[in-house]
Every structure is written in C-alpha cells, then in structure tokens.
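Quick one - first record:
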Amino acid sequence: MLLINLLYLLFASTFILAKNVLTYGSPLLIISIRMLLAGSMLLAYSYLTHGKQLIQDLKKAYLLLALVGLFHIYGAYVLEFWSLEYISAAQTALIFNLSPFITALLERVFYNHRLSLIQIIALIIGFAAMLPTINTGTSNQWFLYNSTAHIALVGAVLCSCIGWLLIKKIVKDHHVHLTTINGFSMIIGGLLSCVTGNIISLFNPTWKIFSSTNWPALIGYILVLVMVSNIICYNLYGHLLKKYSATLLAMAGFTCPMFTALLQWIFQGSIPTATFWASAFISGCAIYIFYWNEVKKN
C-alpha cells in the first residue's frame, strides 16, 4: 500500500507543478513542448522494444490513435491547463474525482453497461459532493452559471474519460502496446497545440503564445513534469497493476485531491477550506461504494 500512496502523491505533485509552470508560459506552449518531448521518448522506447511492430500497430489503429490524441491529450490538457490559471491545484484534483462517474455514464450510453441502484446512488452522491466547492469564489452561484473555468475543467475530465475508453478499445480490439498508444497520441496532441497557438497568433499578434518570461525555469518544470508524470507514474502504475487489481488502484485515486491539498499548503501556503475537505471525503466514500458494488457484481 505504501507504493500506491506514493503513486498518488506523485500524481498530486503534477497538479502543483502544472500550476507553477503556468507562471512562465502559456498552456499551449507548455503542452506543445511537454507532449512532443514525452511522445518522442515513448515512441523511441516502443521502437527499441517492439521494433517493426510499432509501424504495424500505427497502421492498424491510426484513426483511433488520432482520436486519443485529440481527446485524451489535446482536449483534456488544454482545458485543464487553461482552467488551472483560475482554479487552485487542489480543487482541480478534486474535480478529477468525477472521472469514474463520468466514465460509467459514458459506458452506459455507448456500451449499454448496466449500473446497479447502489452505483446510481453513489454516482449522484459523487456529483453532489462537488457542488459546494465549484463556484467562482466570489459568488454563491454554481459554476454552470458563472464560471467558464470550471466548465472547461469538467470538459477536461470528460475528454480524459473519452480518451480512456478509446485506449481500452484499441488495446482490446487491436492489441496495440500502451507505450505506442501514449507516445503517438502525445505527438498528435502536441502538434494540435502548436497549430492552435499559431492560428491564435495569426488573428491576435499581440498575444504571444510561444513566448516565456523565463525559458530555463519553463524547460526545467516541463522536464520534471515529463519525468514524474510520463515516466515514473506511468511505469509505477504498470508495476502496481501486476500486484493489485485495477479496481483497488482506481479506488485509491480518491486520495489524490487530499495529497494535492497537502502539497499546496506546504509549497504555496494555501490552505483549502473545510468545504473542500468535506467534499473530498464524501466523494471518496462515493467512489468506494461505487467500486465496491462493481466488485460485488463481478
């Protein structure tokens, strides 16, 4: 269990790192560099380990791989990083606790995956737990009415969930290695971010998308993000899947917002409110009930 806690502590650190790196560059610049760098590294590793099989994998699932890049990388990361400019790292991590519930709804719609009554109740509790924390901070109105940043963050969670379902389909139907999927999709996401930045610059030359206030700090943060998120967490998660069930690892994910809040307090001096902690605890209970019932059904 120590390694599981370490995994989500590392995941939590990526929210803090992402919040800090935004001080030195725009979301599109950061995503472009990070994803092109990480994607190139993963594809190089995939080629070294699988050889010509890499080319065959890309040929038989290129359209689905491109969609993963569009949703899982480009859509999810652009919306998340833009939202992070206005929302705290801890609250961002908390809203990502909606992932299992949104995934369940998508599976219900597209795959007719049945939900039990207990899971439906857990899903409602999980969504309701977020509502007290999702506002602009200056009004009691819910974010759906007055906060585009929160709407964008929920959109990031939705894009991420769609991406995971696409990855599941590629692995199941086409047997493509996960390293290849991640590498290619990151390249696609990075390229799309570059194209988007250039288009914005054409229409608004004063908005310098590809400039930085401190290039050494920007590159340093990006390299740390790639190392922690794309290399260490990716491999550690794969290692833990050999010992623990995917369900247990998914349930343990409720600790990520709490670790993020702790790191936010230590490194940024920002203490989350009691409302945040209550929402994190309730959403964690809802996730536990949801997955416990899933295990019981199976």
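second record:
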Amino acid sequence: MTTDERAHIDFPSTIGVWWASDTWAMPAAQEVAREIEALGYGSLFIPEITGKECLTQSAAFLSATERLVVGTGIANIHARAASAAESGGRTLTALFPGRFVLGLGVSHAPLVEHGFGGVYDKPLSTMRTYLEKMASVPEAIEPGTGRPIRLLAALGPKMIELSGTHADGAHPYLVMPEQSRKTREILGPDKWIVSEQAVVVGGEAEEQLAYAHGHLNVYSGLPNYRNSWLRQGFEESDLVRGGSDRLARGLVGMGSVDDAAATVRAHLDAGADHVVVQVLGADPTADPRPSLRTLATALGLG
C-alpha cells in the first residue's frame, strides 16, 4: 500500500491518553473514557499484552463516547489472524468513521512465546507479511468502508519505513522528542505520527523517580526497547533493570506539572501529529483521572 494521500483521523485535539484498563470492569472503564473526553483529550489508546482483547475494548470505548478517537497501542499481531484484525478494524471503522485507529505491533519474544505460546521470528518480515495478508481481505467484507487506519509500533528505521509504505504512519512508544523528529524525517509530511509520552504528575522528586523506574522495569529487559534507547543516544550503563536515572529522566516527564506538559508539547514541536499521555503511579492500571485533570489545565485543554 503506497499513497501520498493522508488517511483521515478525526482527532478532536492534538493530545490524548494512553491507559491500560485490564483490571477494570468495562462499565467503570467506560466512565473513565467519558471523563477523558470531557476533559478535552482527543483520544484513548489502549494496549494488548496478555489481558483484555483490544478490539472488543475499543468497541466499548467508542460506543461510550461521542467524539473520542480510540486506538490500539498496540494490537499484538500474534494474538489474531491478519484477516481477523482487518475485518474487525473495518467493522469498527464502519460504525465509527474517523474515530478508530488500528495500531499494530510485533510485540516482544518473551511475551509472544510465553504469553501467547507463539513463535517470535524476524519482526520486519513478519509484520510485512501480516500487512500483506490484511490487504488481501476482499472488499466484500464491510463493503464501502475501506480498510482501517493502521499505525505500526515502529522504533527502528526499517520498521518506520514500513509504517510509511504499508501503513498510515507510526506509533512510537518510550521515545524522546528527538525520535519523533527522526520518525518524521523518515516518513515525510503525509503520514501520521502518534507518539506516547509517560509523565508523573505530583509528588516529591524521589517518588516521581521511583515511579519512572518502576515503569521502565519490564521494558528495560526487552531487546527492542534496549536497542531503541541505544539508537537514541543512551549507553549500556543506562540499561540496568529499571533504567538509570538518566534514562528515566530522559523518557519520563517529571518535575512540576508544567514540566510534564512541556515534554508532551516537545513531541508536537518535533513533528508528531498527536501525543498520547501515560500517567504513571504505583499501579499501571490505576485511575488516571486525578493526574489527567491537573495535566489538562496545564495543557490548556477543555
């Protein structure tokens, strides 16, 4: 799939939210989504690890809101056949045009092999083949809808290139603003970049740093992220479990709420179209709304 025409996503604002609701009952999670929309955030992106299934969740969040864009950040390609991802994405696009984004990723070997019982092989060729299979789903499936908007979890230059030639753009995760800039240089002006930015709102500096290290604990053991951070200028000494203080401060927006807001805006200034904020705390599935309310004011949303 190659085109210079920009795919349409109807983001109400340039800043959204990344939140894992796996441990929440869906009616309560829908209430969170409604407040995220009311606060002025433009999207809710949700992960898929080994908990809830992300297309079902997306349908629930879309039906509970009016304008909020819902995206998968990311749908694990090892969790479903390519035809299922394509047809499911088309159905959500038909029901909620302009409001659903199908973010796709190859995940990581430990998660795929132990969490899904799958086989983790060459990520680039695996993703390319998966996208080609998606493209082969006949137009008779949700006729008149067209394919869903697709973004790739792209960190390395070759996967970023693939996100431009075979998808509608990239969803960088755990990157600094400079990486959003490099992604834009590779993709050019006509592809979407939706960057994730983790932040800590409130608390003392020591507590903020502890939350950042806790967030990085699992990721620092995954080769895809370690390689990404080395490409971004960090060193092997920064890649201790949980990350060095330097790594934590580079990847997580900390300090005052205005400092945290500035890290979000920095991605937009670097070329991202939309930034999804992940607020950190003691529990990754905790209620994000208290921090999001404070951050919304600093970001001038609403």
